[in-house]
Structures are given as structure tokens and as C-alpha cells.
Design brief:
Length: about 375
């Protein structure tokens, strides 16, 4: 009987079927049957029976008002009103406006066709509920730049930072180019403007100093040598046409960070942090460009030749760039091993690892187990 009345569990039941079920249960109860078994025969619970009785009690009509039920809605828009809304929205004066502006504009003319929600609903049903006007659709997020370096002069990173001056509102611009693999500052400059021309000259001087030559067959499939990659953020100087053409001449590829993602250019950001948090960083602004150049030159000399960098096992960037870092780390490992042999009770584990990192990444791809865990978390969410 339940399947004849309702068609299965979870189906919406019309008012006529519910009223028929109430009458059948009333007759069964009058004949001596209990309510619970009678409801089970119909396929409903006692609670549902009470709710249906309450809906039909008094002035109730018993109409199912749940969302998705098949019922007559007196205020539903007619087909003529729907077509009028579509014609109004597609008129030239309203084609670029959202319903939130169309409805008040019609009201100013003494017209009311429907509410804003009715406009949106009709446009959605007609497949026209999209961005109106010349606004561009949201773009797909840019791909994550993933750069790998396993030797010097393979990936360079550069950026520009401000240096304060004694004149309020006037800044000097510090250009720094760092080798990602060795952390060595390969070029720097201080200028009064931010310019792609200055950046192009700076990179060209760095290529000459590091003896980088344009690979044969650059830009074609016949290129056998991996070209130098210059990574930067999305500043105006970084994307300038002057710098682009100069890099093309020198055989250097460009790479860019994602917009507003500072972690895509970590080595330049870290270098600027080291620079501006040095104990000898001037507490007062620079009086002139020459004073700034003098201080930056001293900093670069200290950073390249005396600063033991934590990211490269506490050797200087110059030592790693020149290839002397492995011998230095090997000597350290021998000193530690000798100390361990002299007093083994002080060493519960193996000695410190002084092995130089073979490769350096910008946004290293996740490992297979990390990727599996990430996918599992996404599926759980």
C-alpha cells in the first residue's frame, strides 16, 4: 500500500495522497488496529502522521510547502512576465547593468516588472546570468614557477628595494642579482630611478663578469646547453621591453613569480632581509647616492666573502660559487669524526652532516607521499 501511495521512501507526497493515508489509518484504528502498525503498513512513522493531521487540522489545506514539492504558486511569474524581463535586460541601455541597477532604473520610470531576485532567477534559467558589461572573467591562477639549479650560473634571482634618503619622499633604488645555487651576489647597482634599461645593463655586466655566453641554437630545439634563467617578480622594470630584448640577445630566459606571492622569489627577499637587518645598517637615511654605493659595496664584499650562509652549510657564497665548499665541508667532517673518536661517550648519534646540498629549488615539487596526503586531505574536505 505504501508503494502505491508514495512510490518509495524519501519521495514528496501530494496533499491528496496524504489525506487518503490519514483516512485509511483512521478506518484501521476504528476497526481496532493500533496506530503504529497501521502507519508501518502505509510506510510512514507515527510522527509523520501527527504532522499530517496538524497540517489538515483547522483551516489547513494540507499542501506540501517543502522546497521542490509540486504545488500551485499563486505569485509565480507568467511566461509573458518572464519574456518581458528578458527583453528588458537585453535592451541596449540595460545590457551592461546588473539587476541591482536595472530594477531601480525602471522604478524611476514608474515601472515594476519584478524584484531583483526574480530578475536573477529568470536570467539564470535563460543562461544569461553572467558578468555583464566589459568586465573580464576571473582568470585562471598562474602556474607555480618551479626552478632547479645544480651548479652556478644556472638560475639567477633579482629584485629591487628602496633605500631611504634625507629628502622626504625621495628614494634610492638598490638592484641586486643573486645566484640561487651559491647565494653569491653576482651584480648590484644603486640608482635614482627604477628602470628596465638599468636592469638590462646590470644583467649584461653580470654575464660578462661570470663569462656567460649565449648558447648556440638558443631559442630552437637544437639548443644543447641549458640557458641561464633570470627569475624576478612582476615589477615594471622586470617586465620592461628593454630588458626583454637584451636578455634575448644574451641568451637568457625569463621567469616570473605569481602576482602577490613573495615566496616565489625567496632568495632575493631573504637577501634584502639580511641587508637591512645588518648591525651596521645606517640608522639614518643616506645623504647621497655615493654614500649608499659605498655602504652597499662593503656589504656585498662581506656577504660574498665573509658571511657563512646557513643555507649552504655555513660556507661563504664565494666558496660555494668557486667550488671550494666541498673541501671545506670535508675537512669539517674529519674534525668532527676525530673529536668523536677521541671521546665517543659524548656522541649519542652520528656526527653532524656537512654534505653540501646538490640541488636548490624555487618551489620544489612535493614528494609522492606528500602529494598523496594532500589529495587525501582535499578529498576529506
Amino acid at each position: 500500500m505504501g508503494s502505491l501511495l508514495f512510490g518509495g521512501r524519501g519521495r514528496l507526497t501530494s496533499a491528496a495522497h496524504r489525506q487518503k493515508a490519514i483516512e485509511l489509518i483512521r478506518e484501521a484504528n476504528a476497526a481496532g488496529a493500533a496506530l503504529v502498525p497501521a502507519c508501518c503498513e502505509i510506510g510512514i512513522s507515527l510522527r509523520t502522521l501527527k504532522r499530517w493531521r496538524k497540517a489538515f487540522g483547522g483551516d489547513g489545506d494540507g499542501v506540501d510547502r517543502r522546497k521542490g514539492s509540486d504545488r500551485l504558486v499563486g505569485h509565480r511569474l507568467s511566461e509573458e512576465e518572464r519574456q518581458r524581463i528578458l527583453l528588458t535586460c537585453n535592451q541596449p541601455e540595460y545590457a551592461s547593468l546588473p539587476p541591482g541597477q536595472i530594477v531601480p532604473a525602471l522604478a524611476d520610470q514608474g515601472l515594476f516588472i519584478g524584484s531583483e531576485s526574480s530578475f536573477y532567477r529568470v536570467l539564470h534559467q535563460a543562461g544569461q546570468c553572467n558578468r555583464r558589461g566589459r568586465a573580464r572573467l576571473p582568470q585562471e591562477p598562474r602556474s607555480v614557477p618551479r626552478l632547479r639549479a645544480d651548479r652556478p650560473n644556472q638560475v639567477w634571482s633579482w629584485d629591487i628595494s628602496f633605500l631611504p634618503t634625507t629628502v622626504r619622499g625621495v628614494w634610492l633604488y638598490l638592484y641586486l642579482v643573486v645566484d640561487v645555487w651559491s647565494r653569491k651576489v653576482v651584480a648590484w647597482d644603486v640608482a635614482e630611478v627604477e628602470s628596465a634599461q638599468i636592469a638590462a645593463d646590470l644583467v649584461q655586466r653580470a654575464c660578462l663578469r661570470e663569462r656567460y655566453r649565449r648558447p648556440s641554437g638558443f631559442g630552437s630545439h637544437q639548443c644543447q646547453q641549458q640557458p641561464l634563467i633570470l627569475h624576478a617578480d612582476n615589477g615594471n622594470a622586470m617586465r620592461g621591453a628593454t630588458l626583454e630584448s637584451r636578455l634575448e640577445e644574451m641568451g637568457v630566459l625569463r621567469s616570473f613569480s605569481r602576482p602577490r606571492v613573495s615566496n616565489d622569489n625567496p632568495y632575493s627577499e631573504s637577501l634584502f632581509r639580511t641587508l637591512k637587518y645588518r648591525p651596521d645598517y645606517p640608522s639614518r637615511p643616506f645623504a647621497c647616492k655615493d654614500e649608499a654605493c659605498e655602504w652597499v659595496a662593503a656589504f656585498v664584499d662581506w656577504y660574498n666573502h665573509r658571511h657563512r650562509h646557513s643555507g649552504i652549510k655555513f660556507v661563504t657564497p664565494h666558496q660555494r660559487h668557486s667550488g671550494a665548499a666541498k673541501a671545506i665541508c670535508q675537512q669539517r667532517a674529519e674534525v668532527y669524526e676525530a673529536a668523536r673518536q677521541a671521546n665517543p661517550t659524548r656522541w649519542s648519534r652520528s656526527t653532524r652532516c656537512w654534505r653540501q646540498p646538490e640541488e636548490v629549488w624555487i618551489n620544489k615539487p612535493p614528494e609522492e607521499n606528500e602529494l598523496t596526503l594532500e589529495l587525501t586531505l582535499m578529498q576529506a574536505a
